[in-house]
Structure formats: structure tokens, C-alpha cells
Design goal:
This protein is mainly β. The chain has 2 helices and 12 strands. β7 and β8 form a beta hairpin. It is globular. Pfam families: FdtA.
């Protein structure tokens, strides 16, 4: 990672691995706010029954931080800080993608039966959303 990427919001987008406890009965994964994710968890929501040709996201948050997981199936997340775009495929329920504030995100290529779980740092607040990319790009000029 370069010094430039650390000064950019994109430098904070990263994959987060969670612990797994395995025994003959199966696997158990757990997550603790402030320990496994860099914030206290204030909201949890999940997406399911998403048609395979659907797109989700298409916004950024002014203050909210999130970690996104594919609990079942897979999907692609494209993140953008106004200068750089990166793509991640989520398909392992033990690995989530941390997305800091002021990062545009788009989700697509959902597999049949995909389940997406999101851990959020704040309760829902419509005022925190930036839903227009041009407005987002204007706010993130370097």
C-alpha cells in the first residue's frame, strides 16, 4: 500500500476475515463489533431473493461505515472513492468487505440464492445517503 492510498478513502476499503470454529457438526463464525469490525454494530440487515440480473447499492454514505458479507452464494461489489474504482467478489461467509464513509458502492452479479448481510455503524438515516454519482464526485474532488 502506498502513502497515497492511505490518504485516500479507498485505502480504508479492505477485506476482513472472521474467526471460524469447526467441528464434525459444522462451522460457526461470529463477529464482535469493535473487535472484528472497526466500529460498534448499530444495525444489521440482509438482502435475499435478489434477481440475478439486479443491481443494488448505487450510493455512498456521508458518515456510515459498513461491512458486507455473502452469507450464501456470491456477488460483486465495485467501490469508488471519486478517483479510483476497485472490484471485489464476495463468496465466503467468513470474509466481509469493510467500506468506510464516502465510498460509492455498486453491487451486481448476484448468484441464484445469494444472501448478503450488512453490518452498519449507525441506524438508518436517509440524510446520510448520497444517491447521485455526480454529487458524490463533486464532494470527493481531491
Amino acid at each position: 500500500m502506498t502513502a497515497d492510498s492511505l490518504s485516500s478513502p479507498m485505502g480504508s476499503v479492505r477485506l476482513i476475515g472472521l474467526p471460524v470454529v469447526s467441528d464434525p457438526r459444522g462451522d460457526l463464525t461470529f463477529v464482535e463489533g469493535g473487535n472484528h469490525v472497526p466500529f460498534q454494530i448499530r444495525r444489521v440487515y440482509y438482502l435475499y431473493n435478489v434477481p440475478v440480473d439486479s443491481e443494488r447499492g448505487g450510493h455512498a454514505h456521508r458518515e456510515l461505515e459498513q461491512v458486507i458479507f455473502a452469507l450464501s452464494g456470491s456477488f460483486r461489489i465495485t467501490v469508488d472513492d471519486g478517483r479510483e474504482r476497485r472490484e471485489f467478489w464476495l463468496r465466503d461467509p467468513r470474509t466481509g468487505l469493510y467500506i468506510n464513509r464516502m465510498i460509492w458502492r455498486e453491487m451486481d452479479a448476484f448468484s441464484q440464492g445469494a444472501v448478503c448481510m450488512v453490518l452498519a455503524s449507525q441506524p438508518y438515516d436517509e440524510a446520510d445517503y448520497i444517491r447521485d454519482y455526480a454529487s458524490f464526485a463533486e464532494q470527493t474532488k481531491y
